[in-house]
Amino acid sequence: MRRWLMILLLASPLLAFPVSMLSGRVWISPRAVGQMILTPQEASIQPTLQAVLWQVRLPRILLALLVGAALSVSGASLQQVCWNPLVSPYIMGVSAGACFGAALAVVLWGGGYATMQGCAFAFGCIAVAITSALSQIRGDSSPVSLVLAGIIVSACFGALLFMVYLIADPDKVAQVVYWSMGSLHAASWSGVIRSFPGIGLGVVLLYAFRWRLSVLSMGTEAKALGVAYERERILLLAATTLVTAFAVSVAGTVAWVGLLVPHLVRLILGADSRSLIPASITFGAAFVLLADTLARTVYKYDLPVGILTTLIGAPFFLYLLRRSRTAWV
Amino acid sequence: MGENRMTRKRKPFSFLAALASIALVLLTGCKPGNEPSHKNTAGDITDQAGRSVSLPKKVTSVVCLWPETTRILYALGAKDMLVGVDNQVGKDPVLQKVWPEIRDVPVIGTMSSVNVEQLVAARPDLVIVSARSRRLADQIAGHGLSVVCFHPRGKWKSFLEEITLTGRCVGRQHEAADLRRFIEEKMAEVQTIVTALPDDRRPRTYVTFAYDPLRTTPLDSVELAGGSNIAEGNRDIWYTVDMEWLLARDPDVIVQHALGRYDLATMGGGWSSLRAIKMNKVYRVYLGFCGVDPAQYVAQVRQLAALFHGPDIPWSRDLAADGRAIFQRVYGRGDVFDALVREMNITLAPAETQQTKE
What we know:
The structure holds two protein chains of two kinds.
Chain A lengths: L1 H20 L8 H9 L8 H35 L12 H16 L3 H23 L7 H25 L2 H11 L8 H20 L1 H7 L12 H23 L5 H13 L3 H23 L9 H19 L6
Helix pairs in contact in A: 1-3, 1-12, 3-8, 3-10, 3-11, 3-12, 4-5, 4-6, 4-7, 4-10, 5-6, 5-10, 8-10, 9-12, 11-12, 11-13
Chain B lengths: L1 H29 L10 E6 L5 E5 L5 E3 L2 H9 L6 E5 L8 H4 L8 E3 L6 H7 L3 E5 L3 H8 L5 E4 L5 H14 L3 H22 L9 E5 L6 E2 L3 H5 L3 E2 L9 E2 L2 H7 L3 E5 L17 H4 L3 E4 L8 H16 L9 H13 L3 H10 L14
Parallel strand pairs in B: 3-4, 3-6, 4-5, 6-7, 8-10, 8-12, 12-13
Antiparallel strand pairs in B: 1-2, 9-11
Helix pairs in contact in B: 6-7, 7-11, 11-12, 12-13
């Protein structure tokens, strides 16, 4: 049974992909989708449908998959490394730093997706660097110190963000607020190309280290097993930061994914990182893809996907907590 | 004897009672939410938030926290009355040019908040705030100041009403009536031509936000210029659409807010597949900054009419001269229009249409 569930979770993006390909404000029949994929030069297919599928829907789907995989694997890894089930990718301050960076980009340079994403990435990394430095302040660099440092940094960047909101033109503020709620509405091939290297590299690294994560989740006791605990922990934190910063820079704050998905996978498959990490990658990708498909179809306007992941994630997380009687590791 | 003693005993009570009465009267006079009691009021008006306001008889100093009305005050020749403004109006591309000294007017708040100490110290006869900040208006009124709320909500008629009300508030009724007449005449010239147009000659138009091309609004100047705005609803809000929605509607024309710096033709993400982009019908139009601009709004509608309907519009032959004349009349500075055109690359003539590759 567990084996079949593992296969189901691994295959979930393959199930979500056709659902998303066939959903949208423009109806494209499965036959037309097949034609466009198999014979893209077919003259009988309307150019508008071609544009919808190739220029809008497909890049958005790929970006949703990338963002979902990034946030989920980053959450799963952080929870293992920090021995804390309530840690999510945003606890390191990435989200707060990235939102501040995006706001600065809009206020100082008038926005533009590439500028916003670049600044969001830069400030996301700056926030994590400060968090890491602060966590070393007592010399022990314990997971608790890391979490506390992340809370401090998030609070400071949050205050700076409010400062920007206060002094900026309200029209510009509206754009930053929309972006910070988490949205893939501006997805394009250039966004996919920009985010793929960072997210891909980080995900591959975390996947490759899935064996070590189980050992690291034992905490400092792992040192007794001959593991270079500090070095590997720093490497894994860097990888989670990399994927999170890239994901936040293209999609804003897509909340709850990094918390909900690893918990769900852990409930189904157990805490062994060897299955937790790959299943989190694929199921997280499918989860964000389906949430974004809803976000772009359920209402007459495009909704920020972060709103839906929160509305789905929060009550479901509560249900999981109530249902789970076992320890998290 | 006993009576005297009682009288003596009552005296402190009487004194305390009198003191309490005075304190009560004073406190009641200062209680929050109390409207100013101008003995010499110029009458009551109903502002654009639906509030009834008693106007002071003579207004010599104004704090304006809504850039749109600050521009109207300038156009009515009442700029010297301003003793305080909001933090955005100094960035207004038009006011920066026609009145650079606006930077010297004290900033005493934002469009939704105010520094109460600065406001009270400025002792303005009148405070103007956006109707969207009604709570701010109530807060300021609580300090015994006259507050008026203006916000036309993107509707043409209520903008004209705002000009009239502003004139009345600051005792510039004649200037306001002149300005309103000028604007109405200029707009009537457009309406005379475009109202006769059949629906199939009204280009289906998509309006882009300055900082995000996937945000749009049902801007009424498109309809006034003889176009058809594809945005849904009738509220003057910007909202986000998705690219599939836009591709499905495939507008004939895109009106790009000239404050935006992006190039839609090279953005990717499906933009290049839109008919408007293939036909090179993306028009850069300055849609304003924090509300409507009395000169730019008229110039904008006339510009759009000329771009939509070309030879049918007499002033389409020289849009620059038309814009210059409007700015000269409203702000006394025709050259400001030329400067805006240069800085924002505003479209003054439709580019040669390109043959679609379809």
